[in-house]
Write a structure and sequence with these properties.
heterodimer, A: alpha/beta, Glutathione S-transferase Yfyf (Class Pi), Chain A, domain 2, Rossmann fold, four-stranded parallel sheet, 8 strands, 9% strand, B: mainly alpha, 2 domains, 53% helix
Chain lengths: 290, 164
């Protein structure tokens, strides 16, 4: 497999440090070579578009141009970055006016841009799943996992999603490969409240409360996510929702942490101590000491 | 204009994860745009409750990109004094200020600026987040932040020289 350009994005350098840590360990163990996008910048998230659509495209495309220096594939672990980079590329390819303006602003011709892949997409191709199975040292058997894709992941208009929008299954396939039980539950693609968490905590709490109660009703031992914002909301908001009661809590994992556990990494170096809701109960079910 | 094709089926509102908190529902936004009642739309809180998940756009049988339209409307709505969603606007502007100066988001400053504008409830989370290494003291910065600042300068000028 050729070397890929790794675009961590702002979250993975701060609130989602454990996602970064665990993902890079997994990539290394599976022999997938990567190099960080040289001098990357923020993708602009949804905020850049509130000022100007060209600004939103330029911020995304600058990263693609930088990534092209090291690879033809750029890997984005954050769903928001993934969406912005894909949309930026799409605009350059299909909107000649935008292409011209952005090229003029950046002072360079926009040659062929690299393809954008989400980390989950890369790690769930049949080849990589085989490799994971081959290298696995532990099975997550007995662990009932509710896969949570969030809204952006599945519902962004085509061609930005790589899975079925209404019933995505990539995470479920991954969980089965790891030996766990992938629950079929109804809140897979519900929204966690996104960035409203900081400004309209009431909205985010309502969303998180619903998701967590349904997961518990379905007797899930844990939730697995592939987005730093979903993780922050689901993990951190549970602290606030049920201030002192601990019985109603459910641990939230990044998918890369579950792969890491199956590959035999120590929970500590996968950053599992950084979570607000302790994953101890779920790990015990899978027979992992924490 | 593409809104003309809307037949008010309401699928967008049914699919919207935050419609329960909105003052004007997504399909009503499209209806108001059909009636050219932009004023009611740009002053609504709904515009800023949208989290840009794209559910409405992907479910619309007529292919109307409502999420994209909301983003366009926000560019003019953010400077209206009568808008009811000051906190969200400040959040977006604060987010952008961070990128403008560092090339990347410095979430500690973002968090402090956003929380300072609000009540006490969220502050309780700051220490636990810090203790878990989720908040960094120093910003992660892009070396080419001046180049990025230039992109912002052009965008602000286009908006009439206003600055967040």
């Amino acid at each position: 497999m050729p070397k890929i350009a790794y675009y961590p994005g702002c979250s993975l350098h701060s609130t989602a440090g454990e996602y970064n840590q665990s993902l890079l360990l997994v990539l290394e163990r599976l022999g997938i070579g990567y190099e960080e996008v040289p001098d990357w910048n923020c993708c602009g998230a949804d905020s850049a578009g509130t000022v100007d659509s060209q600004l939103a495209v330029t911020l995304a495309v600058r990263n693609l141009v930088q990534a092209k220096r090291v690879s033809d594939i750029v890997l984005a672990p954050c769903v928001h970055c993934y969406e912005r980079l894909t949309k930026g590329k799409e605009q350059i390819e299909n909107n000649p006016h935008m292409r011209q303006n952005v090229a003029a602003e950046m002072g360079q011709e926009l040659e062929e841009l690299p393809s954008v892949e989400h980390a989950l997409e890369l790690l769930t191709t049949p080849d990589v799943l085989d490799k994971i199975q081959h290298y696995a040292k532990k099975s997550l058997s007995g662990l009932k996992v509710a896969s949570y894709y969030g809204c952006l992941f599945a519902k962004t208009p085509k061609p930005f999603h790589f899975d079925e929008p209404d019933n995505p299954e990539t995470l479920d396939r991954l969980i089965q490969t790891l030996g766990g039980e992938a629950l079929s539950w109804p809140y897979k693609t519900e929204c966690c409240g996104g960035n409203l968490s900081l400004t309209r905590a009431d909205v985010a709490e309502k969303r998180v409360g619903r998701i967590v109660s349904v997961a518990l009703e379905w007797e899930a031992d844990c939730l697995v996510v592939a987005c730093p914002l979903c993780h922050a909301n689901l993990d951190l908001r549970q602290m606030q929702l049920w201030d002192k009661k601990t019985e109603n809590r459910i641990p939230i994992f990044y998918f890369s942490q579950l792969i890491g556990l199956a590959l035999g990494f120590d929970p500590e170096i996968l950053g599992l101590r950084k979570h607000f809701v302790s994953p101890g109960s779920a790990l015990a079910i899978a027979g992992i000491h924490f | 204009m593409e809104v003309a094709s809307c037949g008010q089926c309401g699928k967008c509102s049914a699919s919207c994860p935050v419609s329960f908190a909105m003052d004007i529902l997504p399909h009503q936004i499209v209806h108001l745009l059909q009636l050219e009642a932009q004023q009611a739309v740009v002053t609504s809180e709904s515009l800023w409750l949208c989290i840009q998940c794209g559910s409405c756009s992907s479910t619309c049988p007529h292919g109307i990109d409502l999420a994209g339209m909301i983003q366009e409307l926000r560019t003019v709505a953010q400077y209206r004094p009568e808008v009811k969603a000051g906190d969200q606007i400040r959040f977006h502007q604060s987010f952008l200020r961070s990128i403008e100066h560092n090339g990347r988001v410095y979430d500690t400053a973002l968090l402090v600026r956003t929380l300072r504008a609000q009540g006490k409830k969220n502050w309780k989370l700051v220490w636990p987040a810090f203790a878990r290494g989720k908040i960094r003291i120093w910003p992660s910065r892009a070396e080419s932040r001046l180049e990025i600042k230039g992109y912002f300068k052009r965008a602000w000028l286009k908006l009439g020289g206003k600055h967040a």
